[in-house]
């Protein structure tokens, strides 16, 4: 499922010898639904304004909300495709973003704890997110959109690997 | 730079031989056992420091030369479970803590009425002030009674593995801090405690803010004895249980002063800091305006700003006064403070990252400020006291401060490398700093020439800043995780940023605008390097380290 822009994501963000595991494409559905719900709520407030006042220019309010949402909706599937992770022997790699790219390397030995979270919407889409925490609050290693069984496997895997390489800070 | 006493990073700079070479506690350093072992001066409860500490310490009678209890200081791998001896804080504690409530109440009142002097004057004029005073007395009484109850409920015990602290009047708390996770020990003396000869002992563990175990208040000598005991236990030395309460169980580790900050320099440095600039920007126009218009009302607008500036100057001087740094086998020892005296001990290997900075106004004097990240101290605030390794010092002092943390920089000529990091640029580079490629200079017109990173065997050195010069040093084994960032503009110029994650603190290492391929390679190598450095690093219990790993 690597189309042209994702292939271009190579170079510095694609270390050699790393096989990336993409996250579930259901994440796109979940994100789009979340965006849709937010937009709908905002529109519920904004649309009555032009309808009630009759002033045509007030349609600008809902337009201002909808336009960026539409643009974001186009981006979401690509973003989800760019989101991937890789388990190496000693560390975990997490890659995300297209415009602003990010690659995080978390050594297993530095891991303090692992979070697995799934909100109501994520549960409906059967996805969960796994977050690795080190002693640094800046470590931004979240893997969104994992199938629950994969999230559980990854959690146990990370925990056991972390234990094997246990060290202090 | 040709001062006679140019401190070298690999050499202990103090003129006399230091009883304990700082490099000794670092396992990576080749540590030759001195030909003629210098005995550690005092009858210390530690094993002779000049001898290599055995990996699996055998209770040898010769190693445990202790006058009080012959079996007390034997370094046992698995210390016997000892019965906890519960101790109380000093009985004067409530009298000191109770004041806080009153001070808080007065501060609230001052905040309420300080803005409106007329209102306050009315209050005094028509006799309502009696109610206010009465209320304050009541608040104070409640404060003292609560402090008394809290004191009755507070007790602590020290075992080989942990410090136990039970607190709480309504909501009880039992806290247990593991000693092998100890990050720093502070003895803090606020003004009142200082007058009464008491001190607070604060144990920092790496649990984020509010995770410290605070033992307040103890007699000062008791607090200091307890600190030595805790450090010895944390270092992996088994201290005999059932020691006489209050009596020193362990002799304090010998320490050697490395640098100090003269008061005159401190005051001058504050006057040369950003605070003064702000004062100039705000205060001078108002004064000119008042004189011009002869309308004194405008002065009151400045009152909050004035208090802010005065407060900033005061706290900088107050915290940095009498600053002294020393090295001991227990790590770095910092003492400072004018009203509130603070003695910090940061054991070896606990400094996660270090930053040496110089503002534009300090350049003429070539003064530098050194801050550090220590897990447990946390906080990124500029006014944080604990994170300062050197409030203001000469270039030599800054180099010494770096040496305290990292005795071996892993390069042949550490001094020259540090010089290049402090004030060098891409133009005069002789050490192979990885720098911003020329094509990307548009991204950082001012400082692209300064920005650079150097990887040595032991640490990552990141330099940056043209007006505010900055050199960040991260030991490889202290790297938490690594990150590569690239925005759209950076992609256009084929560059990327490398971010090194460290524990919370004033230092957040980051190298911007490296060539993308170089940054990617660095990310990969750095992950590898951090791993090997980590594997070679000694155990958390620093006295159990071998000479070489």
Assign a percent range to the helix content of chain A.
40-55%
> What is the rounded Rg of chain B?
26 Å
At the first level of CATH, the class of the largest domain in chain A is Mainly Beta
Residue-averaged pLDDT of chain A: 88
Terminal CA distance of chain A reads: 39 Å
DSSP helical segment count of chain B: 12
What sort of overall outline of chain B do the alpha carbons produce when their principal axes are compared? globular
CATH topology of the largest domain in chain A: PH-domain like
Biggest interface goes to: A-B, 28 and 38 residues
Compressed to H and E, one letter per element, the order of chain A equals HEHHHEEEEHEEH
Rg of chain A (C-alpha, Å): 20 Å
Kindly give the count of domains of chain B: 3
**CATH architect. name of the largest domain in chain A:** Roll
Count of DSSP E strands of chain B?
21
Supply the number of structural domains of chain A: 2
Strand content of chain A: 15-25%
Describe the protein's architecture and organization.
- The complex is a heterodimer of chains A (169) and B (549).
- Chain A has helices at residues 4-8, 26-46, 48-53, 60-82, 120-124, 148-164; strands at residues 21-22, 84-87, 91-96, 101-107, 113-117, 128-133, 141-146.
- Chain A has 169 residues and is α+β, with helices and mostly antiparallel strands.
- Chain A has a 4-stranded antiparallel beta sheet with strand order 1-2-3-4.
- In chain A, α2 (26-46) runs antiparallel to α4.
- Chain B has 12 helices and 21 strands.
- In chain B, α7 runs antiparallel to α8.
- The longest helix of chain B is centred in the N-terminal third of the chain and has 25 residues, at 129-153.
- The two termini of chain B are 37 Å apart.
- Residues 1-81 and 241-248 of chain B have low confidence and may be disordered.
- The A-B interface holds A 11-13, 15, 90-91, 99-107, 109-110, 134-141, 167-169 and B 180-181, 183, 206, 350, 352, 375, 478-488, 491, 496, 499, 501-504, 508, 516-517, 519-520, 523-524, 527, 530-531, 534, 537, 540.
